Amino acid sequence: MAALVASVVQAVPAIAVAAPAAEYRDPRELSSWPNPKQEGRKHDSPKAAGDFRPLMGADAGKAASKFDAKTSKEVGRAEKSVDYVNPDGTRTTVLSKVPVSVRDDKGAWRPVETRLVEDRGSKRVKTELHQLKPEFAASAEDRGLVTLGPINLGEPGQRISVALEGAKRVARQVKDSKASYVDVLPDTDLEYEVEPGAVKESIIVKKPTLTSSWVFRMDTGSLTPSLQDHGVLIKDAKGKVVASLPPIVTWDSSGSAKDNKAPAQTGGTYGLKQDGKTWLLTVSVDPKWLNDKARVFPVIVDPTYTYGFNNDDESRAYKSDGFQCTNCGIAVGNSKSGPGGGDSIWRTAFRHDFTPLFGKNIIGARYDFWRNAQTGSNLSWQSNLYHATALNINGIGQFLASGPIGDRGSIQSKALTDFIAGKVAARDNSTWFMLTGSEGGDWSYKNMQVNLIVDHGTAPPATSLMSPADGSVLTSLTPTLSVSPVSNPSGDGTLYCFKVATGADGQSGIVVDSGCITSNTWTVPPACSPTGRATRGPC
Q1: Is residue 387 within 8 Å of 351, Cβ to Cβ?
Q2: Fewer Cβ in 10 A, N or C end of the chain?
Q3: Is pLDDT above 80 for 267?
Q4: 315 - beta bridge partners?
Q5: Three-state secondary structure along 469-511?
């Protein structure tokens, strides 16, 4: 077999970055939505079972993860990771940047739930398992309109309550993970959506209005809110951040997904004032922008309550005008939000907590991205992944992988697998990556979430054919196939995967296989004989 190997060296232009101004900069289109619901996400099916070619130095295209959401079996989980066994016997750990698990009343990790269910006694709606424990009142004027907690990461038993000042008495509407209050203020709706790592709040302004500020009363008990980096941090008595509101993002309805047209976008400001034992949180948008004749309504104002903080698992988004934001999603591409709609480039540095992988032999890796903001382009644009050598917009290091990303997409390569394997082997948990998007003249901005999917295990030694002998001519339609048994050096069980095919490559034509089984012997069932009417897949 001959192999053709090509090496690609990518030149990345440095971006001239304006010095950050002392005054406030709008975060523009930067979305802070955390992880969206992931039900129904599709992944490519794995290739032939028992394929350990990534471990043996295969080309980049063969270094993909064998994880498949439909066929891989969950065997364990933690707050931000889930472990699986794949059909070929390898194992996969999926690392998330937002909490995907919460402990139940017995202390076991369970998947985060976001669907809202009404409590018959209180008439409030709540989730079954969610670390924020969000609840929503039956009517909008309730002083405990939204309650969060007890926050397990903060003071024991501490809850946070939020209410909109001046809200009308309007009934709550519920659909799946959303709680809505229609016309809570004149021509204004209030909507909440529960996500695995957040409660997303949307103020929906349906018509031109003189109101450009909205006041929420927050009761945080012994927790203390403070303004920082255009957002709000909520800390416990020891100064640990237990919840936050990232910078506000605001957009109108002038955008067009069909025409790849950016909506008009701006940011917003928070105001914070103590009022007795509670706090008044003011959410404001520039009234000139809001009442501009060019505005297309409705306009969405989006502050979001998030939790789940870990310095080993964070992201920093950089914009070419000097603005940057921590833990505000993976922002890349051209947002066209410069003066006069000019170019404005985003890049994001991010990292995952590698400690769940320490001590494991990494044999495959991929990054899965999905778009989580209505303000971003849903077209497919090429993205490039690098090792980040500095925490700034030009901290571009070794090129690792690339791939197109639309509403979702994956990036994988042998170089990426080898790079992560080296860091894990060295127990290095300080590694940052840098993602870039399309940086041409078109609107290509995306704000995304990301999972790192890592396969680990050890390939068993090669087995040898025992029966039938190589080159044998068989008359039986149900031959028994047998190979020598082998042991896995990692201690994991060994699976044997038999395949019979009419194609000379052993992969094509009329194909039948045993699936991956624990026995080193398999008899082809009569209905599966490739000389008869065979079926594809396990028989």
Answers
A1: no
A2: N
A3: yes
A4: 350
A5: CCCCCCCCCCCEEEECCCCCCCCCCCCEEEEEECCCCCCCCCE
As a whole number of Å, the end-to-end CA separation of the chain is: 32
Q: How confident is the model at residue 66 (pLDDT cuts 50, 70, 90)?
A: confident
Residues 301 and 255 sit within 8 Å (Cβ to Cβ): no
Please give the model's pTM, rounded to 2 decimal places. Answer: 0.73
The neighbour count for residue 48, using CB atoms within 10 Å, is 14
| Residue 132, amino acid | L
Give the model confidence (pLDDT) of 149-168 as tens digits: 765 544 555 788 999 999 99
* CA–CA separation, 451 and 449 (whole Å): 7
Asked if 222 and 234 touch (Cβ cutoff 8 Å), the reply is: no
Counted residue by residue, the chain has a size of 539
Partners of 126 in the β-ladder: 117, 135
What residue type is 21 in one-letter code? Answer: A
103: alpha, beta or left? (left if phi > 0; alpha if psi -120 to 50): beta
Torsion of CA 255, 445, 44, 429, to 10 degrees: -150
d(CA 121, CA 279): 29
CA 129 to chain centre: 19
Q: Which residues contact 512 (CB under 8 A, 6 or more apart)?
A: 499, 500, 501, 524, 528, 529, 530, 534, 535, 536, 537, 539
- Give the span between the Cα atoms of 246 and 48, in whole angstroms: 44
Residue 388: how many CB atoms within 10 A of its CB? 22
Whether 450 and 368 have beta carbons less than 8 Å apart is answered as: yes
Whole-angstrom Cα distance, residue 150 to residue 130?
A: 11
pLDDT digits (tens, 9 = 90+) for 339-397: 877 899 999 999 999 999 998 889 999 999 998 766 688 899 999 999 999 999 999 99
Q: Are 432 and 452 contacting, i.e. CB atoms less than 8 angstroms apart?
A: no
Distance CA 452, CA 44 (A): 15
The secondary structure of 181-225 as a DSSP string is: EEEEETTEEEEEEEETTEEEEEEEE-S--S--EEEEEEE-TT-EE
Amino acid 215 reads V
Each domain of the chain, given as residue ranges in start order, spans 53-98+331-456, 109-307, 465-528
Measured CA to CA, the distance from residue 490 to residue 493 in angstroms comes to: 9
